[in-house]
Design a protein that fits this description.
Number of helices: 5
Number of strands: 0
Largest sheet: none
Helix content: 55-70%
Strand content: under 5%
Distance between the termini: 31 Å
Length: about 140
């Protein structure tokens, strides 16, 4: 009765998106991000991959037109930032880790409750169809 279609279009087509991801990988392994990669000591490749995950998450948020895809991009961005903090050796207390778990749990609840409501009222999760909501 209320079948979902989780397909979402993008602003950039697939080849351009893949080229952007390759560009991100090339950028984070270049000398521009070398000072950030040195924060993790001898783990230059791992830090570069986490930086690439951060930038790819931003690309996911910006490139996808679906509301659910944007929520997943924000969650991916948040987890990548936490992974970078761990690799960089930043101190994290148990309270901070519980806060992160709480934050991710709230995002999952929001996605579980509100995404079906948006789909039910608008008929699509495509954010370009949500322009009529502006007043």
């Amino acid at each position: 009765k209320n079948g979902f279609k989780f397909t979402s279009s993008t602003y950039a087509n697939t080849p351009v998106t893949l080229l952007l991801i390759v560009g991100i990988l090339g950028l984070v392994t270049s000398s521009i991000f070398a000072p950030l990669a040195m924060l993790a000591g001898g783990q230059h490749l791992t830090t570069s991959l986490v930086l690439a995950a951060i930038l790819s998450s931003l690309l996911l948020v910006v490139n996808r037109k679906g509301a659910f895809s944007e929520v997943m991009g924000v969650l991916s961005l948040e987890n990548s930032i936490v992974a970078f903090g761990i690799l960089a050796g930043l101190e994290q207390s148990a309270v901070l880790q519980l806060g992160i778990i709480f934050d991710v749990s709230i995002w999952v609840i929001v996605a579980t409750v509100f995404v079906p409501l948006v789909y039910q009222h608008i008929g699509s999760l495509d954010v370009t169809n949500m322009k009529k909501l502006r007043d």
